[in-house]
Amino acid sequence: MRLIFITPGTGNYYCGVCIRDNALVQALREQGHEAVMLPMYLPLMTDEPAVSEDMPVFFGGVNVYLQHHFSLFRHTPQWIDRLFDSKFVLRFAASRSGMTQSAGLGHLTVSMLLGESGNQAKEVEKLIHWLEERPPPDVVYLSTALQVGLVRRMRERIKTSVCCFLQGEDAFLDELPEPFHEEAWATLSERARDIDEFIAPSEYFAGLMTTRLNLNPQQVRVIANGISLRNFGDYSKPRSVAQPIIGYLARMIPGKGLGTLVDAFIILIQTSSHPDCRLKIAGAAIPADEPFLEEQKRKLETAGLARSVEFLPNISRADKLAFLHGLTLFSVPATYGEAFGLYVLEAMAAGIPVVQPDHGAFPEILRDTGGGRLCRPDDPEDLAATLKDLLDDPEKAEELGHQGQRAVTERYSIQVMARTVANAAQTVVRAGS
Question: Angle between the 362-369 and 342-349 helix axes, to the nearest 10 degrees?
């Protein structure tokens, strides 16, 4: 099958969706499909070789911004657009802005959802023209529902099916200020009718978005995310238990619960029998995150634990694998209901038991894998107690680690996801023919 994936990039930090889509396209190619990945907004940052390196960036973030705020740029010639769409310019702009943050992006978000009727109509035409010059795809996949503004014009000009992944859009949209919050949800709900099928990563998120977008439940398919297991098996040496290490691997922001974990770690050290325990914090961090990170470091300094914690921002894949395999326990206690949480799979793939809050998709994942424990959401004391229970019972922790690792290997690899997506694509194409 000929499949096209349109994926928003971040430009200067690793993004879970970019990493997943990159691995998914590579797996589909290995399974014999003609899969193409098109970057959108900013260049992609992936932890494996990018499958889209030779592709242009569509809806370049600089052009999108200029066209939104200045009508002149909605009519500029292509050579000017190409200048602003160069990967060098986009990466430079991304490093000096909060282009992926929802704060202040309300009006722009609504405009993008309006597609051919919004301020970025010229960008819609560029993408459609690129698609028209090539053999028509069987299915176009949007990486997020925030891209639905592309679809109406695409369906008018190209004979293809369009499917859309659902990936935590609620958290972004709910941070938009009024009147844009309500307008964005209403526009997204209306534009959702243009989609052949939505793909949710969990039953939890399928139910949530079916309700919030007024979707027909038959329009939503659940396909769990998968991860690339390449090189995970290279780390086979037994882990030392002399000094327990708790790990965190996600964007270093309040919503992922980093503050909750830091508070829990302080409680754990001050009240338990594991004074030598350490905390390692890894994941994406951009300049806009620095004030929050400084706040966490001050809390640790005040508690006398600054030397017990290590911050590792924006680590490579090789460093990530070494990081995961050196942990004793893992936790990303997100403060909101996560649609999925790829980091949970990555920790379990390394054989590390996880402790996650009892909300969102986490109960579903842990029920299926048996790879960890749940704790009360937004409760540092309960998180600390749950971590202590597993540190006190290394045999149970090891059992949970083995169960999670086996489940991820058998059911959550990117190869399993690729086969499931390809089968779903065939079903969509048959239904539309």
Answer: 30
Q: Which residues have a Cβ under 8 Å from the Cβ of 375 and sit 6 or more positions away?
A: 333, 355, 356, 357, 358, 382, 383, 385, 386
pLDDT of residue 193: 94
What is the model's pLDDT at position 97?
59
Residue written as token pair 């390809």: 422
> pLDDT digit string (tens) for 169-215?
999 999 999 999 999 999 999 999 999 999 999 999 999 999 999 99
What type of residue is 365?
I
Mean pLDDT, the chain, rounded, equals 92
Instruction: Give tens-digit pLDDT for 124-165.
Output: 999 999 999 999 999 999 999 999 999 999 999 998 999 999
Mean of pLDDT values over 230-244: 70
Of residues 368 and 241, the one with the higher pLDDT is 368
Q: Does 98 score more than 70 pLDDT?
A: no
Q: What pTM does this model have?
A: 0.92
DSSP state of 413: B
- Gap between the Cα atoms of 90 and 357, Å rounded: 36
Residue 97 backbone dihedrals phi, psi, to 5 degrees:
-150, 175
pLDDT band at 52 (very low <50, low <70, confident <90, very high): confident
* End-to-end CA separation in angstroms for the chain: 15
Q: Which DSSP string do the residues of 237-306 spell out, in sequence order?
A: SPPP-SS-EEEEES-SSGGGTHHHHHHHHHHHHHHSS-TT-EEEEEE---GGGHHHHHHHHHHHHHTT-G
Distance CA 35, CA 419 (A): 13
Question: Taking Cα atoms as reference points, which of 55, 43, 52 lies closest to residue 12?
Answer: 43
SS3 88: helix
The candidate with the shortest Cα–Cα distance to 341, out of 223, 252, 256, is: 256
Tokens standing for residue 123: 């960008």
Residue found by looking up tokens 């990466």 in the block = 91
CA dihedral 170, 100, 344, 198 (to 10 degrees): 50
CA distance 14 to 316: 9
Work out the burial of residue 60: count CB atoms within 10 Å of its CB; fewer than 13 is exposed, 13-18 middle, 19 or more buried.
buried
Q: Return d(Cα 71, Cα 205) in angstroms, integer.
A: 38
Using H for helix, E for strand and C for coil, what is the string for 118-175?
Answer: CCCHHHHHHHHHHHHCCCCCCEEEECCHHHHHHHHHHHHHCCCEEEEECCCHHHHHHC
